[in-house]
């Protein structure tokens, strides 16, 4: 199955930009020492692959998932093979003291890339997972930025999300708050970031779920009114690498609007996916019908699908990469737009946020409304969409 066909386009987004800058990218990687945090996730693996294929002097990958780390190594060995540099993986939590010890022991890194994140809208369904999301998306970003500075890094890259633009969910808002802290840290540590579209078939994504449903003989379910931008895993790695190595301090890279990048509906992707797999989608009227008739329909090369109107908390009807309040550079690169940021931040507000989170954690108890209120204090325009329904209640 051609992933570009599935996404309804016939061209990769960043081919020209990579070709135009390949000499610089390859030379910089070849001479550099890289730390990739969260390097066993979908975007992390894609980014680590882009670095590894250019034969870095050192590439150290940190992730809490041992199993995904094994897959990263197998994938690299089975495609690229081996390089001349120091390639090692570490099954660590970047918020743990063992990570601090690693950074201290290994000395200087030229580039630190942080791809770790709680990325799902469903992460806001309860106050406990929500606090974990804050710890990963905000607090760990601050601590790893400080570790990068201590390691003498030339640049610190951290992935953001398009959902940080005019956020309507807590995940997107947490990333917008993360961007605020990036601005403060940029005074003493050069930083860059990228706002992503959905990465097709990334772990836990709806398209990844299509593969799982097919393997298990289960119906496919998708909203028919949610529009998203999609990029391929390789494009996600290329965007991270370009932002890290080509970006100036405080730059935010994003996929530029073009004929190759267009909004598509999840339900349309589901139809294209099944047709590419040799099945005719059969649209059911309910989840019950889709489950009950699965075996019968699949035997006839028809796959049960249930398409529905989205009604879960935090879902945005469409996605955007920038606001009309941000300054853009749309000329430097062909397929990439760049948001140019001044180091604007509110020190009192940032400190107030950290103090409030610390107090909640010390007390050992908190609820979602007080965290939502804290987020709205940080982002007055935050339009949190609470419906009382969450993705875990969907098939």
User: Unreliable runs, pLDDT <50, ≥5 residues?
Assistant: none
- Largest pleated sheet: 9 strands, mixed
Terminus-to-terminus distance? 25 Å
Number of strands: 16
| Residues in helix, % | 40-55%
Silhouette:
globular
String of helices and strands: HHEHEHEHEHEHEEHEEEHEEHEHHEEEHH
Rg is 21 Å
| Strand arrangement in the largest pleated sheet | 3-2-1-4-5-6-11-16-15
Determine the number of helices (DSSP H or I, runs of at least 4 residues): 14
Question: Your description of this structure?
Answer:
With 395 residues, the chain is α/β, with parallel strands linked by helices. It is 43% helix and 17% strand. It has helices spanning 3-6, 15-30, 42-52, 66-79, 97-106, 127-150, 170-185, 206-216, 233-246, 266-276, 287-292, 294-299, 347-363, 368-378; strands at residues 33-37, 58-63, 86-91, 111-114, 155-159, 191-194, 198-199, 220-223, 227-228, 230-231, 251-255, 264-265, 280-283, 302-308, 327-329, 336-340. A 9-stranded mixed beta sheet has the order 3-2-1-4-5-6-11-16-15, with helices on both faces. Strands 8-14-13 form a 3-stranded parallel beta sheet. Helix 3 crosses helix 9, helix 6 runs parallel beside helix 7 (170-185) and helix 13 packs antiparallel against helix 14. It is globular, with a radius of gyration of 21 Å.
Short recap of the structure:
Helix content is 43%, strand content 17%. The protein is an alpha/beta fold and 395 residues long.
């Amino acid at each position: 199955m051609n992933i570009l066909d599935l996404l309804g386009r016939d061209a990769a987004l960043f081919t020209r930009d990579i070709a135009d800058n390949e000499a610089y990218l390859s030379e910089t990687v070849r001479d550099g020492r890289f730390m990739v945090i969260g390097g066993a996730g979908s975007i992390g693996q894609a980014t680590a692959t882009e670095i590894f294929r250019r034969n870095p002097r050192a590439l150290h990958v940190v992730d809490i998932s041992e199993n995904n780390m094994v897959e990263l190594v197998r994938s690299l060995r089975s495609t690229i093979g081996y390089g001349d540099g120091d390639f090692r993986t570490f099954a660590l939590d970047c918020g743990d003291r063992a990570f601090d010890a690693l950074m201290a022991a290994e000395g200087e890194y030229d580039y630190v890339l942080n791809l770790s994140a709680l990325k799902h809208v469903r992460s806001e369904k309860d106050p406990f997972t929500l606090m974990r999301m804050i710890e990963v998306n905000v607090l760990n970003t601050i601590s790893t930025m400080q570790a990068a500075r201590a390691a003498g890094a030339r640049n610190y890259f951290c992935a953001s999300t398009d959902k940080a633009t005019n956020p309507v969910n807590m995940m997107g808002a947490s990333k917008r708050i993360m961007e605020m802290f990036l601005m403060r840290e940029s005074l003493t540590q050069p930083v860059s970031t990228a706002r992503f579209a959905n990465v097709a078939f990334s772990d836990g994504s709806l398209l990844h779920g299509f593969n799982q449903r097919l393997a298990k003989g289960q119906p496919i379910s998708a909203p028919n009114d949610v529009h998203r931008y999609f990029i391929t895993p390789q494009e996600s790695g290329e965007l991270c690498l370009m932002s890290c190595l080509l970006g100036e301090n405080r730059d935010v890279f994003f996929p530029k609007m073009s004929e190759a990048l267009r909004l598509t509906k999840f339900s349309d992707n589901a139809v294209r996916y099944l047709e590419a797999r040799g099945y005719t989608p059969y649209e059911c009227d309910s989840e019950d019908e889709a489950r009950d008739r699965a075996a019968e329909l699949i035997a006839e090369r028809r796959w049960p699908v249930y398409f529905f109107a989205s009604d879960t908390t935090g879902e945005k009807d469409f996605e955007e990469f920038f606001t009309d309040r941000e300054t853009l550079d749309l000329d430097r690169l062909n397929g990439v737009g760049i948001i140019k940021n001044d180091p604007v931040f509110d020190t009192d507000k940032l400190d107030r946020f950290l103090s409030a989170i610390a107090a909640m954690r010390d007390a050992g108890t908190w609820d979602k409304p007080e965290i939502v209120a804290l987020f709205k204090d940080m982002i007055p325009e935050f339009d949190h969409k609470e419906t009382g329904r969450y993705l875990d209640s969907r098939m």
